[in-house]
Write a structure and sequence with these properties.
CATH architecture of the largest domain: Roll
Distance between the termini: 59 Å
Order of helices and strands: EEEEHEHEEEEHHH
Number of strands: 9
Mean pLDDT: 88
Strand order of the largest sheet: 2-3-4-9-8-5
Oligomer: single chain
Number of helices: 5
Strand content: 25-35%
Radius of gyration: 20 Å
CATH topology of the largest domain: Pnp Oxidase, Chain A
Low-confidence stretches: 1-10
CATH class of the largest domain: Mainly Beta
Number of domains: 2
Length: 225
């Protein structure tokens, strides 16, 4: 059974697993001028339980639709095929007709992804140009629909932290193997790259705490005789 939670009810988005300052990957769906659905993968950042931010390229169809319609649906799904096909709409993969992916949202004039684990129907309250390339869009959450109280949320921070931890286990194993020293350097560079992204998409989070501690552990391992 689908559970529905309206924004004016005392439901906290943190109960769905959201953390402030963490960027979560979503599919943002809007209506084109001809009323056909448009979808694009985008990261969203929660401000609080009622507001969120999107940072969007000025050239995107999504931004133009938001300026016209002043609303959208933020869809969360673990279907990676939807992310790919909404990002690269000219793909030759089969079943790419996005019109069949959507139904009309309940509270805003925008399409909603049928298979989403969680949807946030939002209205736009502010546009703030950041530079010549991007605009920050602030939205108010008007309605929330979830398939469960524990919907699948995807953050690059989580997967990159896991990737770095796996690299760390290999470094610990290789430390006393002279033939593996070049590989250790490569693994450390990968951990550094993961850390750079995590600090951007989830600053001051459990993910940055883990990566900081991991790098301290690696330093200690390398100092041992």
């Amino acid at each position: 059974m689908t559970a529905r939670f309206q924004a004016d009810v005392k439901e906290k988005l943190s109960e769905f697993g959201f953390k402030k300052a963490v960027i979560y990957e979503s599919i943002v769906s809007t209506s084109n001028p001809d009323k056909t659905p448009n979808a694009a993968p985008m990261g969203i950042k929660l401000i609080d339980d009622k507001y969120l931010n999107l940072t969007i390229f000025n050239s995107s169809t999504t931004l133009q639709n938001l300026k016209t319609q002043k609303c959208a649906v933020i869809n969360f799904t673990d279907d990676i095929e939807i992310f790919y096909k909404s990002a690269f709409k000219k793909t030759k993969l089969p079943n790419k007709n996005m019109a069949h992916w959507f139904v009309q949202a309940e509270f805003v004039e925008a399409p909603k992804l049928r298979v989403a684990n969680l949807t946030l129907e939002v209205s736009v309250i502010d546009f703030k140009p950041l530079d010549t390339e991007k605009t920050k869009v602030t939205c108010k959450i008007e309605h929330t629909t979830s398939q469960s109280m524990h919907p699948q949320l995807y953050s690059r921070a989580a997967t990159l932290t896991l990737e770095a931890v796996i690299h760390g286990t290999r470094i610990e194993t290789y430390l006393n193997k002279p033939q593996k020293q070049t590989e250790i350097i490569q693994l450390m560079e990968k951990i550094h790259d993961c850390t750079d992204v995590v600090e951007r998409v989830a600053p001051n989070s459990i993910y940055t705490t883990i990566l900081s501690d991991l790098q301290k552990q690696i330093t200690l391992w390398r100092q041992k005789p």
